[in-house]
Amino acid sequence: xxxxxxxxxxxxxxxxxxxxxxxxxxxxxxxxxxxxxxxxxxxxxxxxxxxxxxxxxxxxxxxxxxxxxxxxxxxxxxxxxxxxxxxxxxxxxxxxxxxxxxxxxxxxxxxxxx
Amino acid sequence: xxxxxxxxxxxxxxxxxxxxxxxxxxxxxxxxxxxxxxxxxxxxxxxxxxxxxxxxxxxxxxxxxxxxxxxxxxxxxxxxxxxxxxxxxxxxxxxxxxxxxxxxxxxxxxxxx
Lengths: 114, 113
Prior knowledge:
The structure holds two protein chains of two kinds.
Chain A: E1 3-5, E2 10-14, E3 19-21, E4 24-26, E5 32-39, E6 46-52, E7 60-61, E8 64-69, E9 74-79, E10 88-96, E11 103-104, E12 108-113
Parallel strand pairs in A: 2-12
Antiparallel strand pairs in A: 1-4, 3-9, 5-6, 5-10, 7-8, 8-9, 10-11, 10-12
Chain B: E1 4-7, E2 10-13, E3 19-25, E4 31-38, E5 42-51, E6 54-57, E7 64-66, E8 76-78, E9 87-94, E10 103-104, E11 108-112
Parallel strand pairs in B: 2-11
Antiparallel strand pairs in B: 1-3, 3-8, 4-5, 4-9, 5-6, 7-8, 9-10, 9-11
């Protein structure tokens, strides 16, 4: 079974600064997908970014980017120019290609300091 | 564009009572799933379905039943509620679970006393 580990239960960042959230995973599969989801206080789960394991290029979505290190099984999320609206729980998630199960980490609570 | 609709938003049950959490999606997604979210535990998969008439268990299926009679609806049933089932429940759907983003409902906060 796959496991996803987020080692930082809580983090904080100054507004306009950059922060990196860590995620590691354990799998024996070679083809899989990785995701970061955001959950603001409203409770709504929102997809932030997605990475396909067979792509070497790191995914980027505006101020959000990932550092995907396949050999190290690491998938960190970098948030640049942090905004107050970025304050949320962030979940890292893994899905094996062809799998019907998405495995989530336990989450990192990000606070943004004005 | 409704997306994924969950009802109710909040529910309080007494131990032993039964109830059904409703989930409907209007995106014609084949894949639907139920997760529970507990503090410090992330989201854990309860049951999922890959199409009408097809369901399977996830990581924490005990105490829950599901059925999928239509593409749109995927209800979650608690037959005899227990305090351990106090949680926030999310329904989610996608075209495919592994390479398509999940679309989540707004969640149901369930308290079992």
